[in-house]
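Bench notes, afternoon.
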Amino acid sequence: MTSLLQKPKGTHGKVHDITPEKAGWGYVGFGLYRLAPGEKAAEPTGDREVILVLVEGKATIEAGGLAFGEIGERLSVIERKPPHCVYVPAGADWSATATTACTLAVCTAPGKAGREAQVIGPAGIDLITRGKGTNTRYIHPIAMEERDVADSLLVTEVFTPQGSWSSYPPHRHDEDDFPRITYLEESYYHRLNPAQGFGFQRVFTDDGSLDETMAVADGDVVLVPRGHHPCGTPYGYEMYYLNVMAGPLRKWRFQNHPDHDWIMQRDAG
C-alpha cells in the first residue's frame, strides 16, 4: 500500500506530485509548487479538471485560453484571508507565473469538457466557524457541493487553533450509498504555525484493517483512501490544511464513528 504520509520532495519547484496511480486510488490528484518571483508552472489538464489554489503569494494565471492577470492576496496562510482560486476544465491548459514567492496547490479529479475556466475565489468564499470548545475550527469552503463550480472536485481549507481537534468526531466517507454516505477519496495538505511545529492524524477503519497514526510536519500531505481521519495540533501550534475530495458523486455525506457520535449529538442538544 502507498504510504499515507507523503513528505515534500525538496523546498522548491514541484514538491508534491500525487496522482491517482501513485496513490493507488481512482479520483483525487494533488500537486504543489513552491515558486520564486518570475518562475513559471504550466500543465495540461487532459481528462481531469483542476482547481488552482494560491495558498500563499501572488501569480499571473492563464487558463483555458483566458488571461486572469495577477491574482492572490495573502502572503501567509495564517492570515486566514479567503484564497484566490481558478477553475480549469478538462481539455484545457493552464500556466502560472509567480510575481512574489508563491505556493500554488493543484487540485485535480476526473472532469468533462464544456465548463469555462474562471476565477472562483476569493469572492463567494466566507470564513465559517464549526464545532465547539477545543473542537472549534474555521473553514473556507472553496468548492463544496453548494457551489456549482466543478464536475467532481470538492475543495476546502481549514484552520485549527492551537491545542484543538479537527475532522472530529471521527467520520468516514468510504461507501457509495447516497444519500446515507458517499465514497470520497481525500488528501490533506498540512501547514503548521510556527512552522517547526507538528500535529497528528489518525486514519482507521471500523474493523481495524487500516489503523495508522502519523506525526505531520509543515508541508506534509496525508492520504485518506478510506476510514475515519481525525487530526489534532498541540498547544502552541496552529494547524492549516487544504482538503481535496472526489469520488463517483460530487456530494459529501459521511458517517460518524459509532463510538464517538454521542459527542456530535450532545453538542447539537
